[in-house]
Amino acid sequence: MRGRQSVVQLCREIERTERDLILSGKKQGLRFRDIGGAVLFFCRHIPAGMFNYATGISSKPAGVNELLGNIEDFYARLNVPPRVVITPLSRPRDLRSRLLKRGYKESSKSDVMIIGSEARQRKTRSDMKARPVLGGQVEAFSSIFNSAFNIPLGLKGALTRFWRSAVFDSDRRLRIYLATLDREPVGIGLIFVGERAAGLYCVATKPGCRHRGVATNLVSQAVQNAFTSKAKFVYLYASRGGNARKMYRSLGFSSKYVRSVYSLDLSTE
Ligand SMILES: CC(C)(COP(=O)(O)OP(=O)(O)OC[C@H]1O[C@@H](n2cnc3c(N)ncnc32)[C@H](O)[C@@H]1OP(=O)(O)O)[C@@H](O)C(=O)NCCC(=O)NCCS
After folding, report:
1. Ligand 1: which residue has its CA nearest to atom 38?
2. CA–CA dist 119, 110 (Å, integer)
3. Tens of pLDDT, residues 199-221
4. For residue 262, how many other CB atoms are within 10 A of its CB?
5. Ligand 1 touching residue 215 (CB < 6 A)
6. Which residues pair with 108 in a beta bridge?
7. Which of 200, 247, 251 to mutate to test the pocket of ligand 1 (most atoms within 8 A of CB)?
8. Does residue 88 carry a pLDDT above 70?
């Protein structure tokens, strides 16, 4: 398969898996709307960027302004800033400069990294445990999530309720992990195992417990479990600004394409 073609196929597979992931969170309030030329992910009670964004943008150059206008109207009704994802699938090709012209700014840029099931698996350490979260551990999971991702105070309550219901009403394809070190909860991650691909999200280690192999160990265990569940590959988004890419590379992940998010901050207008 030629390089460009394989990236496009990979990107399609990842977007399909992400759509299944959002659908799996229906009970928790996650929704998407396919408006033709874009898929809009949203969650009415949690305005966080991780749940509210437009992806799969595909438009002829002549129709893109109308499409962006529709996306902006949609998120304005939800009272959240519009966020547009750019991947190698996005059309028109000059989407980025169109967004900049409308006042959007790049709010994040990530490497999409993958590891195939044929990759040699790293041994996990026996003194560190990472296992799916049980109901009683939701507070520990939320507290690590909030501190590692700097969640604003106003969002913390809604997110904790979200994780609680995600754990209790869990779809068996979604596994939320908690890592412990000497029995203390120190790391988190979640993996969604779709039809072919598995997506790894929210990997974080409690500040103060970093650089001790917690995330390395949790990711290896989650990846191994995904392959046991027949996933062909595992993908993740590693922020260009963060320090995680080196760790993922050492685990056998490689970067395949860039995913950028552009946001329009309406409050500054
Ligand atoms: C990125 C993040 C998850 C890494 O967690 P971590 O538990 O510190 O990661 P690890 O300890 O497994 O690996 C990180 C480093 O420790 C080293 N390391 C691994 N095992 C080790 C051990 N037993 N002793 C000492 N160092 C070790 C690794 O080689 C790596 O080296 P580096 O610091 O030079 O990069 C953490 O910094 C974090 O929570 N960041 C904020 C949230 C975030 O950005 N998440 C990533 C989303 S993609």
Report:
1. 204
2. 22
3. 999 999 999 999 999 999 999 99
4. 24
5. yes
6. 261
7. 247
8. yes
Q: Atom 2 (ligand 1): residue with closest C-alpha?
A: 204
Distance 205 CA to ligand 1 centre (A): 8
- Helices and strands, counts by H and E, the chain: 7, 11
Does the beta carbon of 122 sit less than 6 angstroms from any atom of ligand 1?
A: no
pLDDT digits (tens, 9 = 90+) for 143-180: 999 999 999 999 999 999 999 888 877 788 999 999 98
Residue 37 has what pLDDT?
Answer: 97
> 151-154 long-range CB contacts below 8 Å, 24 or more apart?
151/48
Phi-psi region of 167 (alpha: psi -120 to 50; beta: other; left: phi over 0): alpha
What is the dihedral angle through the alpha carbons of 259, 108, 39, 223, rounded to the nearest 10 degrees? 60
Check if 39 has its Cβ closer than 6 Å to any atom of ligand 1: no
Domains within the chain, CATH numbers bracketed? 3-110+259-268 (no CATH), 116-257 (3.40.630.30)
Residue 59 contacts residue 92 (beta carbons within 8 Å)? yes
At 233, list the tokens: 């590959």
Task: Provide the residue type at 26 as one letter.
Answer: K
